[in-house]
Design brief:
Structural class: alpha/beta
Strand order of the largest sheet: 1-2-3-5-7-10
Shape: globular
Number of helices: 11
Strand content: 15-25%
Distance between the termini: 36 Å
Bound molecules: ligand LHQ
């Protein structure tokens, strides 16, 4: 059985991390396959939203700690360069919305992969753990960039140093998560959000993603210039014309992602 499963449903590419016996901890194969699936989602026109989730009761427990000490493995210094940094860069730059459907515990790199996604939803029984400090590491996979921007530096530094287990409800309250759903309706709700995004103006969403990324580093003046530039690109799309036309004709728009 492959460590990554991939299906396309209603315009969404579902990538399922599939090592459930180890709470979907990452080995090299799974990390490289995830990169390949993200590339596939970027290139397929029929995929207009990506959803990453986990098989079984966990989302991902981060790096497989047995694999990392295996003498035949990549060695600790190559893990970030070859596994996690390329995953985070792909999610960050993917010109389509990426949903993390956090179906259970998300720890270490598993948590930070989820948190760099554009929309994070979690099931009631899920949790988030910056597990790194407990084994003497620093938070990686973009966590030191993402988490303080989501919840502020104080909460981020405390969670990263203490390695607390944050419940889904608390994660939602802090701003790490968009919405939490009861376990029995979670996947159905996550799929509904993904399907909604997949039917929206994909290029406009990609430009929104880009604008938000620059807001983390830009001055107001620079951001206004960027909004001007990106809005012109958005206004040149088919979907903008269709959106306006449909509004004026009082009908539902049929967006094409073009
Ligand atoms: C695991 C793992 C795991 C292997 C559960 N590995 N087997 C970057 C740079 C370089 C090197 C290292 O890594 C990184 C990035 C990182 O991600 S560092 C952080 C690595 N992750 C962790 O430290 C988390 C370790 N796991 C846990 O603390 C717990 O498993 C959590 C809190 C996630 C879940 O606890 P429980 O729900 O009580 O489950 P469990 O501990 O019983 O785990 C279930 C099974 O999964 C168990 O195997 P077993 O054969 O006993 O049933 C665990 O050994 C295995 N597993 N995480 N990361």
């Amino acid at each position: 059985m492959s460590s990554i499963l991939f299906t396309i449903e209603n315009g969404t590419g579902f990538i399922t991390l599939n090592r459930p016996a180890k709470l979907n901890a990452f080995n090299g194969e799974m990390a490289l396959l995830l990169q390949q699936m993200l590339d596939k989602c970027a290139s397929l026109h029929e995929v207009r939203c990506v959803c990453i989730t986990g098989a079984g009761k966990g989302f991902s427990a981060g790096q497989d700690l047995e694999d990392v000490i295996n003498p035949a493995g990549p060695g600790i210094q190559r893990v970030l360069q070859e596994y996690y940094n390329p995953i985070i860069t792909r999610i960050y730059n993917l010109p389509k919305p990426v949903v993390a459907a956090v179906n259970g515990v998300a720890a270490g790199a598993g948590a930070n992969i989820a948190l760099c996604c554009d929309v994070v939803v979690a099931t009631q029984s899920a949790s988030f753990i910056q597990a790194f400090s407990k084994i003497g590491l620093i938070p990686d996979s973009g966590g030191t960039f993402t988490l303080p921007r989501l919840i502020g530096r104080q909460k981020a530094s405390a969670l990263m140093m203490l390695g607390d287990k944050v419940s889904a409800t608390e994660a939602e309250r802090l701003g790490m998560v968009y919405k939490v759903f009861a376990d029995d309706i979670f996947m159905q709700e996550a799929k509904g959000i993904a399907a909604t995004l997949a039917n929206m103006p994909t290029k406009g969403l990609a430009l929104t993603k880009q604008a938000l990324q620059y807001s983390a580093i830009n001055s107001m003046e620079a951001q206004l210039l960027l909004e001007d530039e990106l809005q012109q690109k958005a206004a040149a799309t088919y979907d903008f014309k269709e959106g306006v036309q449909a509004f004026l004709e009082k009908r539902k728009p049929a967006f094409k992602g073009e």
